[in-house]
Request: fold
Amino acid sequence: METLLQDIRYAVRGLLKSPAFTIVALATLALGVGVNSAIYSVVNAVLFRPLPVAAPEQLVDIYGHAATSRSHDTHSYPNYLAFRERTATLSEVIGYSNFFAHLSIAKTSELVVGELVTENYFSAFGIRPRLGRAFTADEYSGPGANAVAVISDRLWQTRFGGAPDVVGRTFRLNGIVYTIVGVAPSEFGGMVRAVTAQMWIPATMVEQVEPFGNQRTTGKSVGATRFERRGQGWLWVKGRMKPGVTVAQVREEFDRISRQLASEFPETNANERLTVVATNDVRLNPDLDETLTPAGLFLVAAVSLVLLVACANLANLFLARATSRRREIAVRLAIGAPRARLVRQLLTESMVLALAGGAVALPIAAWLAGLMAGVRPPLPIDIGLRLAPDWRVLAFTFVVAIGTGLVFGLVPAVRASRPNLVPALKGGANGHRRRRFELRDALVVFQMAVSLVLIVGGALLVRSLAIAAHVWLGFDGDRIAQLAVPLEMNGYDRERGGIFLERGVQRLATVPGVEDVAIATRVPLSLNNNGFGVFIDGRQASASDRPFAIDGAYVDERYVRTMGLRLVAGRDIQPADRDEERKVAVISNAMAQRYWPGDAANAIGREFRLRWGGDPYRVVGVVADYKVDTPGENAKSYIHLPLARKVNFGVYIVRTSLPASRMVPTLQRELRVLDPELVFLDTGTLRGLADVRLFPVRAGAWLIGAFGVLALVVAAVGLYGVIAYSVSRRVREIGIRKALGARPTQLVVMLLREGMLLAGVGAVIGAGLAALAARALSSVLYVGAFDIASFAIALGVLSVVALAAHAIPARRAARVDAMIALRSE
Reply:
């Protein structure tokens, strides 16, 4: 222990004696580790941080799904009650669902996201309110009976100023007055890791707000509200296992419960199945986790490349430092110092530097994480992603710092402990003779290769964005506005909502610059995907056969005309289809070709069903394909069904003669003439929705591009160091060459050849690695994975930076005085 303390003191003194080296090394290390820790903060918040509840390892998630599907879906409230009554393995069964609502406080309003919860929500999760209380059983006496709320700490601070007397105050949510009964603790944000709920209200208020996420209908369902309908799924369910119970036991029990419910309620549950998963094994939802987890790990892997480049640079710095200390090390070995002791002392120096770099990296990571938390995705609400570092981020930072210290310190320490004693003891320039290819050169090649991988990735994503921005969507996205109006948030029932929507069409049609107006339940490229499970006559033999998953929307008779879609065969939806609630459909050409190939007219008159045994829908028209989910998708099957006359949600689609973005405020004002309190869930243009869909690619381009620039800068510093070191070790050689008549330009070319050879080798290796990385990115690219322009751009940038890194060492070599160089040792 005493010798270790001696090594630490010696290392600190040595680092303080070389301030330039120490500052450069600390900056490189802190930057590499800090960027990695910041990205890990994001990944940790979404993927790894456990729910802030008591004993999360005792929780299970219980999902429902059709027998023909492997998805992980919601439950109805009556089924939830059955789970609570029949389980013997769970001490608690908890239900919840996210919702959108219109919050009004002191004449200001905004859209908020919260959770509808069952009465045992807070007690079962071990959450004690910071102020006030949680819900009581009396507040669940019936649908819509008690408008009470527990608000988040964030909402308490931002909208109520952290007032200690907030309990008992009121606010309006979708026009209904709610009374605050409690404030949640600051660390609690609800059940969805990536979304911070702003309030919690009783599940019995479900008809007064709009649940979002996974909603589904199973079979024939009766009941006046979601609270009563057994066939309407909207509630996520978790359970807390009793002591000694295993997940396998819970799974076995709920298989039995599923069979019981299927027997007792065949109209809604005959085709229902249950899946039980340990909560700690779920990130957001098992269906999403299959994509989300690899994406998060890919991001961590990408930023790790920056750290590897920093490690290579630090190793080069330590190799140079060890070379300058050859005489000191040789003397210590000559007087009997054990080699292992010397390696340990040198390694201690690198570890001291690593720990100091980790300490400096923490505030850098926190600052970068704060910047990322401040970036709002293009969504109508603030999801409140929490990126506050926890012990996992701290542990990650110091584990990475220590690992980095070992990586960049071990090899230089071992090499430094094996000097050629006689030349080293003599000292001077001739004590070291440059080999044709040294470890320092290999490290620079590695840096260049890794940098090229990141630059190619960034170039591919940037090129993808540029191309996607000019993809023909099948409609003019710049001249079509969309205004989503969730009328239930303003207290409209379906009958009043339908009347309002039609009045809105008439009013918007009179606005100067408006060419046409339509209504739909979903607009193309919206994040609100709407899918149907479709049974096509002749394709499935029974209810147990899996239906086709096809997206679609309910639209009015003006939709095709307003969107500017081309009718390929048949007819459009007509007013009579809506008035008489006819079971007709207009489909995309891609759907027609997939299920009834040949001429598009071949699909006219064909039938499909939205549930087995349900009434058939008859195809009356086929429209040309257009982009419905993403700008880069191939032609996709899509269904258009007649919009009901009585509906309390709709999206106005407005085609304009002017750029639609300029007219959105005017359109909003016109609709608010009909209702001054009208809430808009989303507004903008269809081109704007395309940009929203491209946000992940845009964010990836920024991040990967930033990583590439950072890595390239660090690599350029490393290349500069190698060339500068080469010049310093060859001063005598350069002097002799000048004395023999070598011109400065010849010396510059000699050094350029040496450095560019390293960059060229790195580029060749990096191009091969970049090709492999490009294949991994291919699913999100709008260009080919081996896009020549992207690779050419990346190679060009690498070449320019490599040349720039040579400029100062090459000029220094050209200015060497021959007489001074010949007298140097």
